[in-house]
Write a structure and sequence with these properties.
The chain has 13 helices and two strands. It is an all-alpha fold. The protein has two domains: 137 residues, Cyclin-like (Cyclin A, domain 1); 102 residues, Cyclin A, domain 1 (Orthogonal Bundle). This is Cyclin-L2.
Length: 288
């Protein structure tokens, strides 16, 4: 991945063309389903652990980076749930909101008992969810092993620049906050930045934060009806028309992809462990 001190490392063309999972025989559509489910799981676990969205976003980018390219991690060797937990745990260690292994393990154990990733009201706090000592010790070892694998695969480069602050700065530069619906625009723009984290097109791995923020503002302005300058204002923020168009299409496509995934799986569990993936691939080969 290319990188600089002022920007995120971006995935190369070669890294986007294949992955360690595909080299190990995982079909691309199945890999996309598992990555998408793993990203949703990471988001849900971060919320349960009461982490700021910025920390969750960093963990999501680390999670996605891990699978990129032929030298990246493979779902045949490490399950998406294990990598999700390790990405979140490792990211919090570098933040002002570190979480203990037990808290992370409990959160994932709690989520595994739910029919969906939206906890119903009145459920106990994940920190108090019971995991037997033997199970905890086993899962802690697996958590540490996955953490080491992530660090090795990414070359210990865990820095993630996020577009949230840029988004607000750009809105200020565009003098949007004088508009009565400015708060709604800002809220919608941030929502698009969160949506981009789940993109099967890996938008956070292919575009810099400045472009992501610009595209989010463009869409939010269209939806709220707030008029932007009559010039190609996005170029001021280092985004050309072609890139803006690609990102707009990518952001708008996430919702339809999510709907397709729900229809595709129809309540069946998406394989989040190595064992579940093996069973799914055997089932798929029998169906063929």
């Amino acid at each position: 991945m290319q990188s600089s001190s002022l920007a995120n490392p971006l995935a190369t063309v070669a890294q986007l063309e294949t992955s360690g999972s595909q080299l190990d025989g995982v079909p691309p559509d199945l890999e996309n389903s598992i990555r998408f489910a793993g990203a949703q799981l990471t988001q849900a676990a971060g919320i349960l652990l009461r982490l700021p969205q910025e920390v969750i976003a960093q963990a999501l980018v680390v999670f996605m980076r891990f699978w990129a390219g032929g030298e990246g991690g493979s779902l045949v060797e490490l399950g998406a749930e294990q990598v999700s937990a390790a990405s979140l745990y490792t990211t919090t260690k570098l933040s002002a909101w570190p979480k203990s292994p037990r808290s992370v393990i409990n959160a994932y154990a709690y989520l595994s008992t739910l029919p969906s990733l939206s906890p119903p009201p009145g459920q106990p706090r994940p920190e108090t969810y019971y995991v037997s000592e033997g199970t905890y010790q086993t899962r802690r070892t697996l958590l540490f092993q996955a953490e080491q694998r992530i660090l090795q695969t990414l070359g210990f480069h865990l820095h993630v620049s996020l577009p949230y602050t840029l988004c607000i700065t750009y809105l200020q530069a565009l003098d949007v906050f004088s508009h009565p619906r400015a708060a709604e625009l800002a809220k919608r723009a941030v929502a698009y930045l969160n949506t981009a984290l789940l993109s099967p097109q890996l938008l956070y791995l292919t575009h810099q934060p400045s472009s992501l923020a610009t595209a989010a503002i463009y869409l939010a302005a269209k939806e709220t009806g707030i008029k932007m300058p009559d010039v190609e204002w996005w170029e001021v923020f280092d985004t050309d028309r072609e890139e803006l168009g690609f990102l707009v299409v990518g952001l708008l496509s996430v919702e339809s992809f999510a709907e397709q995934e729900r229809a595709k799986w129809q309540g069946r569990k998406i394989p989040m462990t190595v064992e579940e993936l093996d069973a799914e691939m055997k089932r798929g080969s029998r169906d063929d």
